[in-house]
Amino acid sequence: MSARLPARPANRGWHGAVSLAAAILLPLAVLTGCGSNSASSQAQASGSADLSQVTLRVAHQNRQTKALMEAAGVLDDVPYRIEWSNFPAALPLLEALRANAVDIGVAGDAPTLNAFGQQAPIKIVAAVRGPTDSTNILVPKDSPIRSVTDLKGRTVSPTTRGSIGHYLLLRALEQAGLTPSDVKISFLQPGDATAAFASGELDAWSTWDPYAAAAADSGARVLVSGKGIMSGLSFLDAADKALQNPAKRAAMKDFVARFHKAHQWANTHVEESARVLAQAMGLPQPVTQAMKRRGPTVPVPLDGALRTELQQVADNYAQAGVVPAGLRVESFFARLD
Questions:
Q1: Rounded to whole angstroms, how far apart are CA atoms 159 and 49?
Q2: Which of 159, 189, 259, 288 is most open to solvent, judged by the fewest CB atoms within 10 Å of its CB?
């Protein structure tokens, strides 16, 4: 299994997918980007605040955020230093936030709630909504499994505990009249799940892009789509300690605006953003094209409607025993302005 991330892997089969997962699962890949200290950018970002001495530690998954922001040109005049850390999934990213190893990072609604359930000192500072079919339950192409009820007694990986893959599996089982005890659940990191699914150790795999798109490109069949089940929500979560620092808070406000602009660019440059992501993640371009063609990613205001929606997700999770009962989301938000 290669430890190097290929620029353009030629193998679109499962061996290539496993090598991709190994590359993504490398220990924190810290990438540093230094923008210019233009006075106009600083004024726009934070009024009179001088951000030239600020280092904002940003966590992202599978190198996606940095790649899109660079391609969109929104990092060209950043008035602070950005230190990037790459993670294969939300669980280790949120653990880094909890340990104050990073300041801000992107994670889905389910893992964010799971972190709140463990009393992680973090807050939601921005939200976006992407395609709900980017999370799927997959089975091998020739599998006899044709419905969720066929999963009874089978081995299924929801990828990591508390992930959006876990949430999709729980809801799909519930809708089919099954309980988690009706299947053999195997929690695995994405790279391990990729290998186990490829080798036939798993009967089904509940996961998200890029892993879902890569598996489908290699022949896996979608048993359950996240459409109608998943919210499509992802958050920029920030560490409480970083939020208590006025300069870092100002830098985060500026970063959020650039983050949203990058998604706006990607929504109108689908093929170009797919090419950029393919290069950044070492994926075949048809995989990233499938990801970007699922639909746009748009900003979501941190308003009452979002709080109500997230509370419903929290209640569903509590019912499944994943987060403590009575978890209230109202206090989990922080406004940067």
A1: 42
A2: 189
Q: Is the distance from CB of 132 to CB of 76 less than 8 angstroms?
A: no
CA distance 303 to 23: 38
Instruction: Identify whether the C-beta of residue 197 lies closer than 8 Å to the C-beta of residue 157.
Output: yes
Segments forming the whole domain that contains residue 185 = 133-225
Asked whether 157 and 195 are in contact (CB, 8 A), the reply is: no
Closest C-alpha to 44, from 246, 260, 253:
253
Give the end of a domain, one of 200, 225, 250.
225
Same domain (yes/no): 110, 191: no
Residues 6+ apart with CB under 8 A from 231: 109, 129, 132, 309, 310, 313
> d(Cα 332, Cα 77) in Å, to the nearest integer?
31
% pLDDT > 70, the chain: 85
Q: Are residues 57 and 168 in the same domain?
A: no
**pLDDT tens figures, 52-84:** 999 999 999 999 999 999 999 999 999 999 999
> How many CA within 13 A on the CB side of residue 140?
17
Question: How far apart (Å, rounded) are the C-alpha atoms in residues 244 and 253?
Answer: 13
Reported pTM: 0.83
Domain stops at, among 181, 206, 225: 225
> Domains in the chain: how many in total?
2
CATH of the domain at 319: 3.40.190.10
**147 touches 230 (CB < 8 A):** no
Q: How far apart are CA 82 and CA 240, in angstroms?
A: 18
Same domain assignment for residues 107 and 154:
no
Question: 238 and 327: one domain?
Answer: yes
Residue 1 lies in a domain: no
Stretch 128-148: mean pLDDT, rounded? 98
